[in-house]
Each structure stands twice: as structure tokens, then as C-alpha cells.
Fold each of these.
Amino acid sequence: MTPTYARAIHWFRRDLRLTDNSALHAAVAAAGEVVTAYVVSPWKGSHAWTGPPRQAFLASCLAALEGEVARVGGRLIFRRGAALAELERLVRETRAEAIFFNRDPDPHGQKVEAALAVRCREWGVALHGFKDVVLHEKGEVLTGAEKPYRVFTPYRRNWEAQPKPPVLPSVTRLVAPGAGLASDGVPTLATWGLGACGAVLPEAGERAARQRMERALDRVIPRYAETRNTPLGETTSRLSADLRMGTLSVRELYHRVVALAEAGSAEVKVSAQTYVGELAWREFYMQVLGHFPEVLEQEFDPSWRGLPWSYDESRLQRWKDGMTGFPIVDAGMRELRGTGQMHNRVRMIVAMFLTKDLRLDWRLGEHYFMQALIDGEIASNNGGWQWSAGTGADAAPYFRIQNPWSQTKTYDPKGAYIRRWVPELAQAPLEALLGPAEDSLWGRRGGYPAPMVNHKEERERTLEMFKAHRAAQGR
Ligand SMILES: Cc1cc2nc3c(=O)[nH]c(=O)nc-3n(C[C@H](O)[C@H](O)[C@H](O)COP(=O)(O)OP(=O)(O)OC[C@H]3O[C@@H](n4cnc5c(N)ncnc54)[C@H](O)[C@@H]3O)c2cc1C
């Protein structure tokens, strides 16, 4: 069959894989030759929305992708610069007739896509965008009145009822134009002017992601309903960074989990359904960001805008350093610094502590997480922070303030997670991990600080802050 285009560009973005990749699959079907390209963003030094761990993980994903593309006969071209300018150069150099890409759920990416659509018309180049990052894009799951959902449960019900897109075959052969195209090479941390990342990161790339998925399907997801709130051990799938980078397709993951449920016991079914619910949360927050991009600046619930949050730098630093004197909080913050990851239950605990015990602005925590997490996903992160602050879509009401000590008793009752991440506490008596212990119980603290605040008192002050704000609005 004659291809529609002699030559096309596939623009890799957050879809760094060959398996079940919507746009790449379509590009290969439509074009005689496919130029695969990745544009490395040109910022230097620091970035409000990312940091060394995620950039290091991204660079390793790109190195792995370069190998995968070469294995099937293609060549991955790297260009450093602004996406539009680099794509224009590439179109000129290759005389490509079309650009294929997978759509970004984030507002910034969408702005670039809109601008590219205009430029492609000027260049006389066809542009093909595909759904790939999600099972359902923001316009697909709406209320009966065609409005976006603001609450998760009805969203999930509707999301689940929608037919899901099928898995596409892997791209096994790429025909690339002959040599001669310049490539800037795989980026490193130095490309962005970043120093060493310091965290021990998981293996990156499609192959490693697929191995993680198989392991999770085998060992974790069948028991997920029971294990998912335990912060230490193989209790959750740890696939969020792969979904973030697109080294794993959410379609494939979804269909594999559904197949597991169909073949499994009642217990496995419940676990698989619980897991699918988490994938729905991911898309719920993406549609919140898509419909209400102002959440990146402001509280989702307008009535909580203007709360008198604190900006105390030294308190923020103690939280970042894992030196608050609340062992569960410090364990989480140190896991984050050590691995670029943190268990979901602990994310909620540290976020609630920052916003409700320290009353620091949730945006400070949101940005720090984006700089420290390898799975940093603008929508889920914003959703998680606003949930914890009590200001978001379907958030915890402001008066439901979690007690870090009770959370420890429930989710880390033996202190195993704490001892793993806070070495000063390795020998501390269990009581000292489960409540604000007197120094007499500790012997010596070994450099570990006493709790920086009294939770009960801070809880009262926080409730006052919210109530006073409400009263000032005449509510
Ligand atoms: C304050 C805060 C910040 C967060 N920031 C991020 C972030 O930047 N990136 C991110 O991917 N997730 C974020 N989450 C959600 C959640 O903590 C992570 O998705 C989860 O810990 C990733 O580990 P996992 O892959 O083992 O998850 P699993 O428990 O195995 O869940 C499977 C997948 O479902 C999705 N998921 C699970 N829980 C949530 C959730 N609450 N919201 C949205 N998606 C979810 C993820 O894609 C995850 O990989 C945040 C949560 C909170 C409370």
C-alpha cells in the first residue's frame, strides 16, 4: 500500500516507548520513513516544576529509548531548544510532510500544541495528535449536563462505564532517512546545568518499566487492597514514574489488570478493582487541571482563596530535611530525598503536616515535590496537595486534620518504615516513634530533634485560621 506521506516526524514527548504508542504506531502506518525526535527543553540552572532526580530519570529513559529505536532500525534525533523552533528546523532539514505526536494533558504542553498547529498550517505540514497519556481525555467523561466533574466518585462511575481503547501492537520496524541528520545526543544533568541528583533511582526505560509491571501484576496488584497502605516493602506497584515518562502505556496496564481480575479469585478481583480506581484518580486530577488550570495558582475551592498561610523558610527547610521531630514525617521526607519516590500514605501525612501543623502554604510543598519526585505529575501532585490542604476538588474537609502520631500507629505500628529511613531512630524504643516521647525515654536523641511543634495545639490554631477566614467572608 502506498503510504500517505513519504516522510513524517514522530515527536516523542511523554511517551518514551515503542509498545502501544498511539502516535508512533500511526506514523509508521502512514509514512514511508519516520524521523523520531525528542526536543530537550533549553532552561538552565533551576526550574520551579522539576529538579535533578526527575531530569536524571528522564535522561536515562531517553538513553534507553535511543537504544530501542536503533534496535528496530531507526535513529532518535535529539535537539536542544524551544519545541516550535526545533521542529521547524527539523521539518526543513528532512522535508517531512507530517508531524505525529501524543497529546499532553498539561496546560503548558497544550499551549505548545496549539501554537504548533498554527505553524504547521503555515509550513504546509500535516499535524496529527493522539490520545495516549490517558484512557479518557477531559472532554470524554462529563456530567449529564456536559459539565466537568468536581467530585471523584461519580467521575469514577462514569469513567469506568466508558469503553476503553484497545492496546496497539509494538513498533518492530522503523525506516529512517539516511545518515546526515545532526543530533545533539542524549541529555545529561549537565545539559540543564544541574548538579548530581543524590538519589538512588530505579532502572529507567521501557524494558525496566515492563519488568516492573510484570512483577507488580504477579506480586502486588493481586493483594493490593490489603497492602496498599503499608509504607514499607513491595506494597504498591511503583509504576507512577513509568506512567509519567510513558515508558509504560496506561492502556496496556489497565487491560492487564482487568484480565487479572477476570481470571482471579474474589480477593484478586477486589484488589484489581481498587487498583483501577487509582488509575481513575490519576485521570480525575488530569481532567481537573484540564478544565480548571487556575488550580496551579489558586485554591480549587474559591472560598478558601486568601487564607493567611505562612512562608517561614526555616520551618520549610526542617520539613524538607526530614528534621521535624515527627518520625513518620521525617522518614517520608528522607525516603523522598534518597529515592525520588514516596509512598502515597506518607505523601498524605507529610502534606497534611506541612499545611495543618506548620500552616505553610501548600504551594511550597507542591513545588518541592515537583522538584524532588521522579514521578512528579503536575495534575496528581496539585490534586494531592490541595486534597491535603483542604482546598481542592473532593478534598478532605478542613476540620479533618490527620494526627501524625495516630497515622503512625495505624500504618507503621512497628516503626519498620521509620527505622528504615531515620537511622538515628534505629534503636529507639517503639513508644518514642508512636508519640511525642520525653527525653527520659530516649536516653540520648543521637542528633534527632524533639518535635518542632505540638500537634494538638497546632490543630486548634489551624481550625481557628479556617474558621476566621470563613467568618470574614460572612459564611
Ligand atoms: C501530596 C501528594 C502528591 C502527589 N504527587 C504525585 C505526583 O507528583 N505524581 C504521581 O504520579 N502521583 C502523585 N501522588 C499520588 C500517589 O501518591 C502516587 O501516584 C503513588 O504514590 C505512586 O506510587 P505507585 O505507583 O506505587 O502507586 P499505586 O498505589 O501502585 O497506584 C497505581 C497508579 O495509580 C495512580 N495513582 C495512585 N494513587 C493516586 C492518587 N492519589 N492520585 C493520582 N494518581 C494516583 C498512579 O499513577 C500510580 O502509579 C501524590 C499524592 C499526594 C497525596
Note: Residues 266-291 form the longest helix (26 residues).
Amino acid sequence: MSLNIEKQAVAQSFGDAANDYDEYALIQHKIAQGLISISPKTINHSKAILDLGCGTGYCLPLLSEKYQTQNVTGADLSQGMLDYAQSHYPLFKYEMADAENLPFKDNQYDLIFSNFAVQWCDRFSQVLAEIYRCLAPGGQLVLSTLADGTLQELKQAWAQADDYQHVNDFEPASALMNVVDASEFDVALMNTKTEVHYYSTVRALTDSLKRIGAHNITSGRAKALTSPGTIKKFTKALESFRTEQGLPASYEVFTCVLSKPKIIS
Ligand SMILES: C[S@@+](CC[C@H](N)C(=O)[O-])C[C@H]1O[C@@H](n2cnc3c(N)ncnc32)[C@H](O)[C@@H]1O
């Protein structure tokens, strides 16, 4: 499946959101903490770490502390995010990078960490191949990404309101698993979990997606302003999902911990 992603728009959208991101990215922070806690206890060699799709950079000091090294690099497609990260966490190195075409040497990193970032890429297989190339033998990858089913309430509500695409497409979890299985990596852990975040109002839900830069960047999006009538239909449809806890936004989170074999046959 080839996803319809416009990388320039992705970089711009996240860059514009950099200042507000951490205040609104509650689910991203929660998953990042979980990912750091399941990261291997120790890593090899020089302890060179890459946070791929680092965003505002808040994981860099956490990784640095866990592995007792300052040799941590943040890489991201968005210059706006990198500028923010550099100004808040100046101890670390930063590099503009596309996860599908990494500007790093072979065997350069002992740990590559990536939280909620590679779902914006066209081909997960290409991302994994690039990560594999840049990891040293024995190096490890700890990654979370989003799978199909993510924001399904929003997707269904918009489908009742108009014919445009408002929610990005995500690969089915089974396809992500197949890509991992077909790779050269050894699999230590691989799972998919549904995380649901609740909002009090439709505005709170849609605003929070906008504030983290994760709103619609598909080519099937509406190019003009959405009419009040369409917004009314959308709001009514989304309200039909309301539970006692509020309006749900579901995230299908695919997680894996993989290692590059020490001896490559
Ligand atoms: C939802 S944010 C996650 C940021 C951070 N990892 C976190 O845990 O909050 C997604 C980040 O991935 C970056 N990104 C999107 N596509 C990318 C790509 N192809 N290569 C590298 N970074 C990418 C975006 O610019 C953005 O900063």
C-alpha cells in the first residue's frame, strides 16, 4: 500500500505546531514514557543514540539519563521542530532527516528510538531498511507508530458530513507486522494496543490535533473552508460516539523492539 503523504506539508505542519506541541501531545508523551521503559537496559559500544522523528526533543534528556551518555542525536523532517528542540535541549546534536532516506553512515548507532513519527512515511519497509543500515551489529530499535483504526471516530464522523478525506490513512497493523517479519531484524517484542483519549467537546478534540500539527495533510483534503452546514453534520456524527468519559479519540499503537544481529550472515 502506498500512502499519500506530502512530506513538505508534514514538515511545515509540525514546524508550525512546535511551540504548542508538548502542552497538547498527552498521548504521545504517555507512549514515549512507556517506550523508554521497555527500551533495553543496556546498549553496546559507544552508546550512540538516535531519536528519529524527535519532534520537540523531550525524549532526548530521558534517553541520555537512562543510558548515561550525551551522545544523543535528534533527527526530524521539520526544521521548525529541530529549532525548538535545539533551543530547549542544547546539549544534544540535531540533524534534519527523512526516515526513508537517512543522512547517516552505515552501522552508526547503537540504539534508534522512534515514537509516533514514521506513520507519516510512505513505506514502512523503507524506514526499517534505513534504520537497519544505520544500526551497528547488535544495535537495537525501539519504535512506536500508528496503525489503521487510529482516529476512526473522527474518520467515520467526517464520512457522514462530506466526501473529502479528513483523516490520514494508516497501514493495517498486520501489514506492519509482515514488514517486520520480512526484515533482517530479530524480534524481541511486537504488539498493537488501542489507546483511547477522551475530550469534553468536539472543539477540544479537533483543536488538540491541530495544536500538535497532526491534522489532515492528505491530498484528498478539502482545499476550501468547511461550510457551517458540514461542520454541523460532522459535530452531530461525532457526538454519537460520546461515552460517560467524553468524546473518544482512538489510537492503534504498534510497538516493536528489534535488534540487528551481531553476526550478519
Ligand atoms: C507526532 S510527532 C512525534 C514527535 C516525538 N517523537 C514525540 O514522541 O512526541 C511526529 C514527528 O515526526 C516527524 N516526521 C514526520 N515524518 C518524518 C520523516 N519522514 N522523517 C523524520 N521525521 C518525520 C514530524 O516532523 C514530527 O516532529
Note: The two ends are 30 Å apart (CA to CA).
Amino acid sequence: MLKVLLVSYGFRCQLYSGFAAETDGVEISAVVEPNDFRRNLAKERFNIKEEMCFKSVDEAMAAGKIADCAINGTMDQFHYQTTMPLLEHGYHVLLEKPVTSDKTELLKLKETAERNHVVLMICHLLRYTPFYSNIKKLIDDGEVGEIMTIEASENVGVIHASSAFIRGKWRNSKTDGSTLLMAKCCHDLDYLCWLNNATKPAYVSSFGSRNFLAPEKAPEDAPLRCMDGCPHQETCQWSAYRDYIKSTLFSYYAFETIDKPYDEITIEERIKSLKTDNVHGVCAYKTDKDMVDNQMLIIQFANGSTASLALMLGAMKPKRDIHIVGTAGEIEGTFEDSRIVLRKFEETNYCTEQVFDLSGEDGVNFGHMGGDGRLVDDFLKMVQGKKPSPAYTSIADSVNGHLCVYAADEARENMTVVKVDSI
Ligand SMILES: NC(=O)c1ccc[n+]([C@@H]2O[C@H](COP(=O)([O-])OP(=O)(O)OC[C@H]3O[C@@H](n4cnc5c(N)ncnc54)[C@H](O)[C@@H]3O)[C@@H](O)[C@H]2O)c1
């Protein structure tokens, strides 16, 4: 049996461990989780022995080599400190994105994985979705010739924006470890570099601001908490009352501080929490968010090709769009539609159009449009010495996307163009 150590048992690890446990020859045999409630959940779900349940990575490392590989789903700011000991002790690691917000740490993780001859794979799951993996195949098959430009966008819907980046645990880069671009779009920078990996990113420029969801834009009569009698409670698009009491979309994020199975949290407990110590109950304009509301960036690649990404919080229709123009054709699509259009020059009618409908692909309606399950499968294949898929995201292959994020945030803050020392 291939033994897996879970490093944390939060939302992402609960998902990934489910996929791993369903794989033949794989056993979830140990867990590190400082939260007693979550550690016990893992213990019961996978019948983990008491002596294989730990409160810290150091405790687990002191127990010897207890598993073959680890899945690390800790929060952004803990990735480096929890992954380094795993690599040094010879564990193959599947690490959640973002790797780290510090360039030195990123390169150190890469060096440590290489020196210890272990797999360090990053959860850039978009690469595994039928949508992006088929786009990559069309590019690699030469269908659009040489890429000249890629235009991409990430429109974060109102409720997702609110529960994750305005009120949620990715709202403040200083305490939560990542800027908005890093937390939300290191995926997008990763696939932009991956799709265009005939070349490397060379320069980045970027603009963005926090001028809209800011305290001075709050209605004058809005109290600090939505449910403290805010007169806009029924009509405001950011109403905590509507998002977490009337509706339940994304509300699992809002009550994660209550150590109870989500379904058992009563309405009274929700209301009390939102009215007292829960940041999800605070007026969206008045949280301690330091994230930008919108950001745009342009990448100049070494071969002269360009890519742009537009990121915005609060879209009515959440979606990721992409439009790639090459020297012999173009590709266009919206991720959430699982549909790709390929257009090519044709002598008689000028242009042919071929549509690839991927909506029937296995697992496409679950877990990032099928990406989560395929990613875990690829990691386990790598660890078992099997050939990984073309989407395989080794640490070395994930560095350039992160370097573009660092460069874009530096360019935005300093209003400059930043050179990317890509590898
Ligand atoms: N790949 C994706 O598309 C995607 C989507 C969402 C989140 N994420 C990333 O996944 C990560 C986890 O997010 P989440 O929502 O599951 O977080 P979470 O808060 O639900 O889980 C994190 C867990 O880590 C535990 N923890 C804290 N310190 C620890 C330590 N030193 N050792 C072990 N465990 C520790 C916490 O108790 C908590 O249970 C984040 O980095 C996030 O950015 C990735």
C-alpha cells in the first residue's frame, strides 16, 4: 500500500484525501492537524491509528518515516514552513497553491525537492481540466501556429468574492499570506506560462486599485455589521444576511470557525456568529481587507508574444475567458462552458470553425470542472513511478507563473515594468 500523510484536514485536504482514498493501493495512514475537531474527523473517516495523528509536522517527523508521500493543504502562509521538513525527510509532496509569496522560499523549495529526489507537485488543477488540457493539446499539435497573443480574464462572482477575498480568509495579504493576484490568479499565470511554454515570460506590467470596496464607499447609514439593523440588508449585493442566512451558496466558508459539521450548525448559531465575532458578518466595505478590487496585467514573453489577464471582484457572472491568437489560427472559450472554439484560415470561406464540446467529459461537473480528481490521480501516479499526464505540474514547471505574480504585484505597487528572471 502507498501510505499518505495528510498535512492539515481543512476544506482542500478533505477533498483531495477523498480522491486519494478511492485509489487502488492507497491508504490514508496519518494526519497532522492542530485543530482537534478536524484531526478527529480525519481519524474517523480513514480509521487512522491514534499514534498516527499529530498536532504538528515536527511531531510527525519525529515519529520517523511514517508514509511515502504527503498532501499539504495548509493555508498559504504555512506552506513553506510545513513543506520544508517533509522534503528533507524524503516525502513526495502534493502542495496546495500558492507555493509561497516569497521568491527566495520558492527557489529554496525547488532546490530542496531536487536535492532530495522527491516529487514536489503544485495543485495547479486548471491544467487538468478538460478545458485547459484540450487547449494545450491544440497548441502543441500546431493547430494555431506560433502563439502571438493570449487574452484571459478571471471574473470572480459576488458571493465568491465576498466569502473569500473581502470577508474571507484571503482578505488581507499581511496576515493571510497572499495578494489577491497570488491567491486567486496564480492558477491563471501558471496556465498562461504553460500554454506559451515555447518561450518564457520576460517583462510584466500591471495596474490595480482598492477604490471601490473601501470604507469610504459604504452607505453613510450602514452599521459595522449587516445584521445590526442595516437598512440595506435586503437590497445590498454584499448583504451577509442574504448570503449566509437566506441563501447557503459558499456559506461553508462563513462558519468554519464553528467546530461542528456544517449541516449541524443551527440558524441561531449562524445569526449569533454573524452578529458578534465573525468577520463574515461585517459590512463588506468595512472589513480589514487590503486586497485590490481589480487588477490587470500584461506579460511580454522573450519571443515577442504577449499575454494579458484581467481580474475583478464582484462579477455578476463568474467566469474565466480565454482568447489565443496564433500565426495560423485562434482558440476561444469560457472555462465554465467547457466549450472550445478553434478557428483556422481556409481558402474558400476564409475561416473554418470547429467547436469542441467537453461538457460530457468524466467528472467535469465537480471539483474545479474535473481538475481536482485528475490532479490527485497524477500525483499518485508520479509517486508510484508511473508516467504522469502532460499536465504534470512539477515545482520547476510552476516557478515561472509565480515569478510573474511577484513581478505583477511589484509593477502595480511601484507603477513600473518589471523584468522576470524566468527559469
Ligand atoms: N487549488 C485550488 O484551486 C484552491 C482552492 C481553494 C483553496 N486553495 C488553497 O488551499 C489551501 C487550504 O485552503 P482551505 O480552504 O482548505 O484551508 P482551511 O483553513 O480549511 O484548512 C487549513 C487547515 O490547516 C490547518 N493547519 C494550520 N496550521 C497547520 C500546520 N502547521 N500543520 C498542519 N495543519 C495546519 C488548520 O487547522 C486548518 O484545518 C490554501 O493555501 C488555499 O489558498 C486552493
Note: Residues 395-414 form the longest helix (20 residues).
Amino acid sequence: MPTESTFLLAGLFFLAAALGYYFAVSGDDEERIDRTPAGRLNADYIKGLNYLLEEKPDQALEVFTRMVEVDDETLETHFAMGSLFRRRGEIDRAIKVHQNIIARENIGAMHREQAMVSLAEDYLSAGLLDRAEELFGQLTDSEDHGIYARRKLVRIYEVTQEWEHAVKGFKELESIDPRAAEESRVAHYYCELAESAYADGEAGLAHKLLDQADKASSPSLRSQLLRADIRRQSGEHKQAIELYGQIMDKAPKLIGAVVPHLAESCRETGEQGHLSESLEKLLESDPQAGRAIGLAAVYDPRIVNETALRCLRDFVLGDPVLTNLVDMSGLQADDSEAQNAALERIRNGLTNVISKGHRYQCRECGYVSSDLLWQCPSCRGWESVLPSVQLNFSSLVR
Ligand SMILES: [Zn+2]
């Protein structure tokens, strides 16, 4: 049965034949004699294409890598073939094709650089990051591929978590690519360094790195949250409460992640009233915030604040799935004690059956996580993993 590659290669074959024929009939008499379609498309080339059409990639590869003559048309076929192998996951073959192009002495700088980019992509696909880094490093001054190569280098540093290299690489990129300046990634890299420093017990260094993050991108939401967390973990709850309040004002999308920490600091200082005030203020400016607050109370049963529990009650009563599954009569009882008992029963049930692994979800690719991640491990997007606004019951069907 013909496959995608068969059609693609057949297309390449006819394109190459048509080009050969065009040059043959449009040249002068002397050229017309030397450049018949068969003459232009030398025997090895046709043999290699035939092997590809017959789905015999190893034989085709052998013929193409042995070919003595490589001109612009056949070179494009080499590139197409390499790209096809990579797309099909045949990375070893793609590497051979691109290495063969680079080894040619008769190709120009433009094609050599194009082949280096392709080979570096092959290495990335194969997980050979060191080799990809080396090749992209040789292309940073290329007029055609310099920006792309620098972007790829930064991506490699992100994967290998070499954050100091990432800072340096991205700052260099910002100096030549105006789009990079809008991405504020350097702040994230400094925050990564600050997290490591704090984990190593170097709180002073962590604060200095957070200052660097703010200089790189003002204001950096992540640096503010990290500062608040450091205060909370150091027992400086009053400062933490103030910082958490500022974050919720600026970033309602993070309410679900912040409320449990704010509630903890308010518990430690006995300031339940302050927590209620903060939550009421949020609800006033955005009634939808109630959903995130209610969910936070499900994920963290230590939250006993009245406003949070009211949000949870509204959330449960407003959920069409839950109202069909759960006996809600207690929630609507006249007796407030009966209401509280019913809410506690429902909350305990939900806390036990929801999947904590789905507490956060990437808005770009759907990746789910039990922790707040600033870079999605799946699509590598920044700040795309956010608190989920729905209950997930997938743990019930395992
Ligand atoms: Zn993602």
C-alpha cells in the first residue's frame, strides 16, 4: 500500500525530473546535448530514488551517500530525505544523510549551515543534547540561523537545568531578537537558581537572586510567590500574608495555589478574620474566584475559614454532576449545625476520591500535575500550568 513517504518521494522524483527536463530544453544547443533529463538526473540519483519508492531505505541511503555528483536539485532531495527519516523516527538514517551533506566539499556555506541545523535537530530528536549543543554553538553567528541556534541552545539549557547558561544565553538572544525581550524568561531562570540556593540553605543568596529576577522582569509573579513561601517557611507569617495578598490581587489565576498557603500563615498567626477579609475582597472583584477558593478547601481539609467553606458549599450546590451524585438535602437544612455537618461529610468524601495528581493543568497541552510547575514538562510552555478549576475523579476509575 502506498505510504505518505511514497507519495512524497514520488513528488520529489517528478519535480526533479521536470526540473531536469526544463533545464535540458531551455539551455543552448551544447547544453541540450549534455543535459538530457537522463543526463541531468544521473544514474545513481535515479537508482536511489527508485530504492526509496520501493521502500528500501537502507539501499537508497547507501546509493545517495556514495553519489559523487551533488548539485542544487539533488541536494534538496537529500534534505527532504533526511527530514522524512527524522519524521518517521528513523534518526540514525537522518543523521547519516545530514552528516553526508556536511562532509561534501563541493557545497556552499549556506547549504552546509542548513545541514548543520538539520543534523543538530536529529541529535535533539535522539536525545544527544551534547552534540546538538556543540552544533548549535557553531551557528550562533550565522546570519540565517543565528537566532534559531541561540533559541535552541537556551532550550537545551532549560532541559538540562543549566540555569546560569540559560540566563547568559537568553540575554544574548534578547540583544539581537526583539521578540525575546517580551518573554521575560530570564526572571524564571533566576527564580530557578533562587529555589536551588534556598534548598541548599543559602537564604541570603536566594533573596539576591530574586532581586535579579525582579530586575529582569518587573514585576515577576514567580519571585513574589517564592519570597512569600520563603517567609512562610521561615515562620515570618505576617510578611508572608502581606505578600500572598498582593499576589492574589495581581494574579487571580493563582488563587487556587495561594489560598492554602495564605490560610496556613493566617492559622499560625490566629488571623482568621484577615483571611476572611482577603477572600471577601477577592469575591467582590471577581465572583468566579469562589470556585477556586472552594476547590482549595477540598484539596486542603485544614482550611476551616467560614468564607472558604461558604465558597465550597456554593461550588458543590452549583455543580450539576455532584448534585446528581450526592445527597444535598443536608446543605439546604434550616439548622446551621446540620448544614455544617453535611458540608463536612461531602468535603471529606471529595477529598478522598478526587485525584490530587490533577490539581494543576497546562492550559496549552492538558498536562496534569499535583504541583504548581512554572514550565510545563510536556510542551515546555512557561506559566501555562495553572490550578485546575474542575474536580477530577480519574482516581475512581483506576
Ligand atoms: Zn503543556
Note: The chain has 21 helices and three strands.
